[in-house]
Each structure stands twice: as C-alpha cells, then as structure tokens.
What we know:
The structure holds two protein chains of two kinds. By secondary structure, chain A is mainly beta. Chain A has helices at 29-37, 42-48, 53-58, 387-391, and strands spanning 72-74, 84-96, 109-115, 120-124, 142-143, 149-162, 172-173, 180-184, 190-195, 201-205, 212-214, 221-227, 230-235, 240-244, 252-257, 265-271, 274-288, 293-308, 313-316, 323-327, 332-336, 347-351, 370-374, 380-382. The longest helix of chain A has 9 residues, at 29-37. A three-stranded mixed β-sheet of chain B has the order 2-1-3. By secondary structure, chain B is mostly helical. Chain B is elongated, with a radius of gyration of 20 Å. β4 of chain A pairs parallel with β4 of chain B, so a sheet runs across the interface.
Amino acid sequence: MPRNxxxxxxxxxxxxxxxxxxEWANLPRxxxxxxxxxxxxxxxxxxxxxVCSSWRSSTPSKPRSIFSHxxxxxxxxxxxxxxxxxxxxxxILQLGLPDSRAQTTPxxxxxxxxxxxxxxxxxxxxxTTFKFRHLPPDFPKTFDFSGLRVFELGxxxxxxxxxxxxxxxxxLGSLYMEKVxxxxxxxxxxxxxxxxxSGKLAMFRSGxxxxxxxxxxxxxxxxxxxxxxxxxxxxxxxxxxxxDVADGSSPVVNLAASSVFGGxxxxxxxxxxxxxxxxxxxxxxxxxxxxxRWMIERMIHFKVFRLDQREQKWVEIESLGDRLLFLGDDSSxxxxxxxFYGCKGNSICxxxxxxxSDAEEDDASRSGTIGVFDxxxxxxxxxxxxxxxSKTIWPPPAWVSSTSQDM
Amino acid sequence: xxxxxxxxxxxxxxxxxxxxxxxxxxxxxIQYVLEDTNPVDAIIPVPAVDARTLSKVxxxxxxxxxxxxxxxxxYSKWDKDFVDAEVWMLYDLIMAADYLHxxxxxxxxxxxxxxxxxxxxxxxxxxxxxxxxDFSKEEEEDFKKKSGWAFK
Lengths: 407, 152
C-alpha cells in the first residue's frame, strides 16, 4: 500500500499563532444555516436565534405549530364509521436548571405538553393521556423557560375520531389506540404511519383523500416509530421492516431485522441514537367484582434488544447503563437516569392497567397505571413504590415556581 | 507497485504538504484548480488555511479515501473522535472545510456543533462559543414574552 506522505516541514510557529479569535458570531450565513437546519427541536431553534443578532438574522423562525391549517384528516380507506380524524401533536420535554458549579444535584422534570390552537399549553402525564388540571398554587401562569435546559425527548402524534362535521360540537374519541409515527416532508407535507385494525400498516400522505393499507403482513404489527429518517414497524414476532415512502406509487416494505419471538408484545424506542426493541412478557390474571370477572394483562418481564443493521437482527443487551426507557400509551422515549434525582438507570417505566388503584394519593398525578421494571434485579412494581421515579413526573420540582414571568 | 500522482499544497503559514492527488481531489476547490490549470509539479497555495488545520483536514481526507470499504460502524466512530475537539479547532476546521469545499466534512462538523446546542440555554451557548450578547434589554424581554408558555 502506498504510504501517504504528509510532510510536516520543521516549523517554529507556536500554538499562540493559531489562537486568532474564533468569530462564531460572524460565521458565514450558509454555514449558520446548515447548523440551524439540524436543530429539529423547535426549542433548540428558538434558543439558537436568541444567541446574537447575526445568528438570529441567518435563520427564519419556525411557527410553533407544525400545522398551518386545521389538522383534520379523512378516515377513508381506514374506517368507515366516523367522518374524520383529528391529529394532535405533543412534545415530551426534560426541563432542568442549567449546570452550575455550586449546584450539581440532578433536578430534571419530565413533562408532556400540548398546545391548543389558541396557544394555551396543557400539561399531560408524560406516559399517559391524563391532563393535569389542578396545578399547584405557586405554579407560574406564564412559564419562562429561557433560563432552563430544555431537551425534547420525543414527540407524539395522536389520531382522535371526530364524529360530526364542524361546526358543532365534534365529539373527539380516543378509541383508536395505536401509535402514530410522523415524518415531515417539504413545507407542510407530512406522512403518517400507524397500525390498522386488521394488524396491517396504514399510511397517510398529507393532501391525499384516503389512507393506504400496506398488504405486507406475516403477523400483526405491534408498533411503529420514525427513527433516523425512516419509518420502522415491528410485528408481534419481532420481525421489523423499514417502510420506504417513495414518491408517487405505493410504499415499499424492506426487512430490517428478523423475528425474535419470545414475549407477548413488542415496542420500539430510540435511545442515544440507537433503535431498541423492548419485548414484554404478560401473564393474565382475573379480578372479580360483584357481577363481572375481569381478565387483565399484567407485565411480568422485559427484554431489551438493539438493532444490528448490517446483520439485520436484534441483539439482546444485558444492560441499558444510565438509560431509562419510557413506554407510554402514545409514544416511547428515553432519558439519562442521572439527570433525575434518586433514579438509577437500566430501568423501564411503562403503563399497565393492572397497576391501577383507586387510592386517593393518585388523584394528583394519576400515575396509578404506571409501573417500573428494574433490569438489574428483575423486580417490577407500581410507580408509587418508587418515590424518586414518581417525582420525575409529579409534583413539579421546587424550582419551577421561580420561572414565573408574572409581575 | 502502483504509481501514485502527488500534489503539493502550501498552507497560509508556508508549510508544504505533499499528498496523493486522490486525497486532494476530495476538496472541490483543489479539484477545480487541478482541472483548470493542471499544474505539473506546481505548488497549490491554500492561503486561507494554516498548517495545523490543513494537516487535520488532510487526515480526514486520507481516512475517507483509504477506508471507503470499512464497515459503517468503524467509520462513524472515527468521525466522532475526529470532531471531539476544542471549540476553536472546530471553528478553524469548518472555515477550512468551507474554503476547500469538502461537503462531507462540513456536514460532520455541523452535526457536531448542532449537538452542542441541544438543550442549552442561550447564555450557556454564548459561554461555550465566546459570543457577546448584542441584544438590547428590550429585545430580550420581547423574546421572553413571545416564547413563554401560558399554562391552563
């Protein structure tokens, strides 16, 4: 092999010579634009534009809402029962005080927010659909987050059935329980991927009049996700496919990983730039009340795999290290455990009706259907038995009251 | 043994770098120079890039030429380590990559810089990149008002 000779001629120039001030504020506009383009979180872009005037003028602001029109979609091709779907978007955020030398106690808070068309923000339990209606008395009416660290851990899109044509009181029902993966295209264009009642994949492209049902199915699909620029879907054997949104004709499905079989339900989640598969094992138990006998699925075990793209297979991982996985009702996401006070990594927070309790202390947070699984010990239990994990969600940390903009 | 054509580059501070033509061709700027003038044994000046930065850029070009067939994961690990550099070095590198027009290197550094912004407050970003806050108090108040959340 020819050896490349980068010949460093003797040079007496000291390091000081190179320390000409890096003028980040005056970076050429096209480079600033390339950097800003990579900030896919609305919050990161907002902050980028608040650094200095030249950065601000290099990049136009993005509207907070992704929809410039009412997000009402047809159900044609999907379901003939209702008139339309209403598509809403929520953001899952990790908020925290910036690092300071004096204060190193982890203090992050996990929230999910939804903005309604009038600009009002609603706070939702990050794993469920429960809206917090009774905010603490010292909770700021207007929340100033410019001094906080804000990580957008994920976004979720939810389709709700609309029963009546507007105007009038359209009934929004959330009977449709499957997750929705979202991919934005040029301008206002977007694609959605979700799971049809038949277990097949269903895709919708903005502007289309009907849904496309994708026929490829060996076993019913369990979950969908948008990861690293592609739609992925996993069926209940763990067989995973990439769904290619080729322009024009019907979408193309390609194998990403073979089946793993094993447990009862498969879930996809991103963690530190990697795609993970969580395999959930259930047991059925019954609960008798006066008239009815309920059969309820209860989670008893989890296994986690990472995707080996080259070998097209899922490889089981022993430990998640410092990562915490959250498997919510409408989306999955992950966070760094050490950012949250008293939380250890290598754990999974998940929702399951079997943890539901009527206890009064649940009223404030309605976290009663959330459970925690510790991969180290294999132990599993309701969130209420893990006090520190519970505090990642509710009540808000003490510092929140100091972020008020109110006079 | 294969005959390899060489090209000589001269940095802003006068150092000479003798490299394979194929390595140099990853820079579109140099590619144009070679196509237009076809200088035989001539020295191509790179007046906007100093020796320290140029040697780092050429290290990147060399790696990405030789290792075109190595698997994806090794490659991305190398890239990650390559941009794990001081902030001033990233500045010199992105300016050099822009001047020499090496799109994959520009992309790599932009990815790195964008990842440094994630989650940070504007104050922290200014601190990391040594940028003066040139907004007036009124402007700052206005941003805050517009970006605040009204909870219900």
